[in-house]
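Re-running Retinol dehydrogenase 7-like to confirm reproducibility after the cluster update. Everything else is unchanged from the original entry.
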Amino acid sequence: MFLYLLGLVVFYYLYRWFREIPRVPDKGDKYVYITGCDSGFGNLLARHLDKLGFCVIASCFTEKGEEDLRKACSDRFTTLHLDVKKNESVDKAAALIKDKVGARGLWAVVNNAGVAIPSAPCDWLTIDDYKSMLDVNLNGVIAVTLSVLPLIKKARGRVVNVASVFGRISPVGGPYTVSKYGVEAFNDSLRRNMVPFGVKVLCIEPGFFKTTVTDSIVLGKSIKQLWEKMPQEVRDDYGPDYLDKVDVMMREKLAKMSDADLMKVVSCMEHAISAVRPRTRYSPGWDAKLFWIPMSYMPTGFADWLLLKEAILPAKAVN
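Result of re-run:
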């Protein structure tokens, strides 16, 4: 019986691997719009797709990001400035893309732009802290998608949304997981809405990778700033040594958990864009596959126990 089940599993993965090999033709006629290309996944994806022959439109928040990409890529490559928080910036970018792609439409948009700060326990934060991140990670994704959706429908193309395993389970406080749950919900509803138009909507759910999102120095500085501005009453709840414990945990554990091979994520993004039969969801990273996503299916009580077991507790925690 065991060998029979093992054979079925092997057959399934071989079948899936074979089925996912074919790639779309005429890459040189297909335009791909990527947000958040200053660094990290977006930067690597833009360079990778350019080498594969796609016509890449890479949006950056900084002039330096644009300049570095233009120097490194081909004549097909286009850069533009984009601030996903501002509707006028999103609309201006969409108008430029419409002129660029013409009647053929836009093959794909990759919603990669995102931020990870401020992140902290919920009672450290204000509603403005939540709004500042949601404007980028969630509202920005929706605004960019809607701005170019008519062009994608014209091409019967793809929408690729970069969420996170933290869109499946919420082990930390703050707006990051809230924003990623929102991206998952938008992705699911859009996927079903677009089926009649032949548009594919795919989701990338990475685990921990070494990017600015998981940079312990950046995160530590943000947490320290939040600590210094919050009410003394809340600081007393957590105790004077709480901040030091968090700093040590981030420097030791976060570095070990984060995978340095960003191409694992970029390869999933590229497959979502170029495969004839892309997957609905991609979960790059062994931590995503073997820990976070399985935990998201566990009973809530068990997941809470497991996550709190390793958590740094406040000084006034109730025993």
